[in-house]
Amino acid sequence: MLAKIRMARSSPVFYPSSSMTNAPQIDRAVTAVTHDGAFRVIALRATETVRDALGRQAVRGANAQHLAEVLGGTILVRLTMAPKQRVQGIIRGAGNRGTLLGDSHPDGTARALIQRPAGLDEVSLAQGAIMQMNRTLPTGAVHQGMVEVPDGGVSGALMSYFQASEQIECVVSVGATFERGELVTAGGFIVQLLPEVSRAPLAVMAERLDHDFSDPAAMLRMIASDPATLVGEILFDMPYEQTQEAEVRFGCQCSSVRVLASLATLPKHEIRELMESEEQLSISCDYCGQHYELSPKALAGLLSSS
Questions:
Q1: Which helix (H) or strand (E) holds 45?
Q2: Largest CB tally within 10 Å, which of 32, 49, 205, 231?
């Protein structure tokens, strides 16, 4: 998604990173399965990925908290359902006002986006907010699932999505902690009851998680150290095997080719108007802020394809 075209030259935007002062830990997800085949657990540390995404969207407060949870949840859905496919998680705010979007790709990159109508400050997750998950299938088709956002917020919506759209019994928790407005840790986990096991073990596990992992801050502290630490705590006293590890990082798929492709959707008369200008076209990516400058002559080939 690209911002409006501006007929002026702009300087590239530079986003400071925590890596300038302290070497950041590599974000990663750890997957483990119990030996008895009852549970699969995925624990995700996404702090640097989320920090970069929030910085580029320039969000703070409740919007930052919710966007962090949407992005972390979207990554967990991809790792659970479609590690080699793209997943987009979208929350439309109450009254269909404002959108929070997480976008996770099979190469491990992820990005986020907030959209708000003029005059709206906070995208509300109050009654009426809707979560939609778009999961790309191997055929290229898109599987869509939509649920209401309950009082449990993003974590509750993710559990509802898994149960309603994927027929998966699970417990999901995503979160982010902030100090003085700055992100400290972001991530989450999913505990999935595997299909061949009865639902009874999940009820026992859910009670345990509610008792021992009800404090999101404590959960995130374990993730901050190492996602494998959280896996070990969740599966304490249960024999298990770590089956997979995947790195996660911020990344955007925008490019000059994609910019031209987006311009090709414009009506021909608008493309002609752009070509008649003698100034460079400056287009910004809504996700990462990257600027692309194009000569009006570069649009000539679009008249035959638009």
A1: strand 39-45
A2: 49
- Asked if the 28-250 domain carries CATH number 3.55.30.10, the reply is yes
Superfamily of domain 256-302, CATH level 4 = HSP33 redox switch-like (3.90.1280.10)
What is the C-alpha separation between 223 and 194, in angstroms, rounded? 23
Rounded Cα distance between 98 and 58, Å, is 15
Strands 28-34 and 39-45: antiparallel
What's the pLDDT tens digit per position in 257-292?
888 778 878 888 877 877 777 677 888 899 999 988
SS3 percent helix, strand, coil of the chain, rounded to 5, is: 35, 30, 35
Model confidence at 297: pLDDT above 90: no
Torsion of Cα atoms, 234 then 237 then 242 then 245, to 10°: 20
Count CB atoms within 10 A of the CB of residue 188: 30
Confidence category of residue 208, pLDDT binned at 50, 70, 90: confident
For the chain, domain boundaries: 28-250, 256-302
pLDDT at 265: 80
Sign for the CA dihedral angle at 64, 52, 136, 193 comes to negative
Nearest to 115 by CA among 11, 2, 230, 275: 2
DSSP state of 284: E
Q: Where are the alpha helices (DSSP H) in the chain?
A: 47-57, 61-81, 153-165, 200-212, 216-225, 227-234, 256-263, 268-276
Phi, psi (5° rounding) for residue 49? -60, -50
User: Is residue 282 exposed (0-12), middle (13-18) or buried (19+ Cβ within 10 Å)?
Assistant: middle
Report the mean per-residue pLDDT for the chain. Answer: 87
